Amino acid sequence: MIVPLNHILLVAAALFFMGLSCTLVRRNLVMILIGVEIMLNAAGLVLVAGSAFWQQLDGQLMVMLIMAVTAAEVAVALAMVVYLHGRTGTIDVNTFKDMQG
Amino acid sequence: MASLLFYLLAATALLATLLCITRRSPVHAVIFLINAFFALALMFYLLGAPLIAAWEVIVYAGAIMVLFLFVIMTLDLSPDSQRPALSRGQWAPVLLLFLLLLVSAGLILTFDPASQASVPLFYASPRSFGAALFDRYGLAVEIVSFQLLFAAVGAYYLGRRRKARQAEESS
């Protein structure tokens, strides 16, 4: 493996910023969740690269825990998307800017 | 050879992610994202994490993205995909983030000589991975398993309540 660490960091940074811009700009709830997934994967890439760079296992263990947390987050978030779609018939986030106490 | 493969996979992942976040239809976005996850899984394998690579394919591409597809196909989002993905005023945060990315890339490339060193060869066998996981992070594994249980209960509750509300409205 002859890749410098900062090249991996660059790839991960580009992935993270793409996920962040997807989350900030898109008005579709499903696309916002997809942006969150992209950001989590970019963080996982940094953790695995650090794990290989310092010859420690902890980064990979962290990625495994992140995957489990992501599965839980996606389950609840998609259930909420289905719930909101059942209430309003749309998943555009501009529809959900008003609170009802 | 391995480094050439790594750069190819990185280009694939970046291109697939870029196509993913610019699609109008969420189904196309999910398909491109699965492509990006396969490339990322191979990058994990090259960085010495075969177990993480397998889980990337099984959990992310196999379970989470299929869950997205199920929800998209259940909801019938066709009218939403007719609208433009981005309006003109929404380009400002994208440009700002791209500027930030360029600045941070320049900082990484110029002012961080420590990370110029190449990543050494490393291989975490599943046996050592499992030993380290249950040896040092047993409590974290338990907490995460509880969290998965709570998430399952919460998702069940959200789905259940909507059905009850529909039954109320129809009766």
Descriptive report:
Chain A has 101 residues and is mainly α. Chain A has one domain: Helix Hairpins, CATH 1.10.287. The longest helix of chain A is centred in the C-terminal third of the chain and has 31 residues. Chain B is mainly α and 171 residues long. Among the domains of chain B are: 78 residues, NADH-ubiquinone/plastoquinone oxidoreductase chain 6, subunit NuoJ (Four Helix Bundle (Hemerythrin (Met), subunit A)); 35 residues. In chain B, helix 1 packs antiparallel against helix 2 and helix 2 runs antiparallel to helix 3. The chains are: A mainly alpha (101), B mainly alpha (171).
Task: Please summarize what this structure is.
Chain A has helices at 5-25, 29-53, 58-88. With 101 residues, chain A is mostly helical. The mean pLDDT of chain A is 88.
Low-pLDDT ranges of chain B: none
Fill in the CATH topology of the domain at 1-78 in chain B.
Four Helix Bundle (Hemerythrin (Met), subunit A)
Number of helices of chain B: 6
CATH level-two architecture of chain A:
Orthogonal Bundle
Mean pLDDT of chain A: 88
Distance between the termini of chain A: 57 Å
| Helical content class of chain B | over 70%
Number of strands of chain A: 0
Helix content of chain A: over 70%
CATH class of chain A: Mainly Alpha
- Please provide the ordered H/E string of secondary-structure elements of chain B: HHHHHH
Show the largest interface. A-B, 69 and 88 residues
Q: What does the oligomeric state look like here?
A: heterodimer
Sheet with most strands of chain A: none
**Terminus-to-terminus distance of chain B:** 67 Å
What's the overall geometry of chain A? elongated
From the 3D coordinates, which CATH architecture of the domain at 1-78 in chain B would you assign?
Up-down Bundle
> What is the general shape of chain B?
extended
Q: Could you report the average pLDDT of chain B, rounded to the nearest whole number?
A: 84
Work out the count of structural domains of chain A. 1
Q: Rounded to an integer, what's the Rg of chain A over CA atoms?
A: 17 Å
